Hints:
This protein is α/β, with parallel strands linked by helices. Strand 3 (about 45-50) and strand 4 (about 50-55) form a beta hairpin. It has five helices and five strands; from the N terminus they run E-E-H-H-E-E-H-E-H-H.
Amino acid sequence: MPKPESFPIETIFVPTKQKKAIKPETVAEIAESMLEIGQQTPISIRRDGDRLVLVEGLHRLEACKALGETTILAVVVTAEFAEHKPQLAERPEVEAERLKMARLKQLRLEREAAEASTAASKGAGATQASRTHPAKGARDNPKASPGRTVKSKPKSLSDWITQQKGSGGRY
């Protein structure tokens, strides 16, 4: 059984047919899982001349890309073993991957908390500003004469005549 190794993500070629099968919701679920527990199953790749071609693990590869990873655990397989999916046991490289993912999660949580704190302080500042500088209007203006209201603009000639009769004006 081949041993999982770390490969640069940018060197792995994804066939066009596989790219069409990407499901963003699956990528998001796997990325969240990777933040929690790390990569549990390596992807499968094969050598094709000078390049590495993805055999299995498209969503894991995309999840690592989404997380900003530059490397991924993979197993190099031959055509006969393309269906082989080794499970990772407790190995030093797996533990290192878990620690890296835990650090990434902690950094993400700290960044989100800082953004929430900044947004909250900006929101509190806006609320305080609106309390100290009220908008000036007839209700807030102590010099405005009591009982006076602004008449609405008439929509038709008959509305204007009715308004004029009610105010005692001439028409």
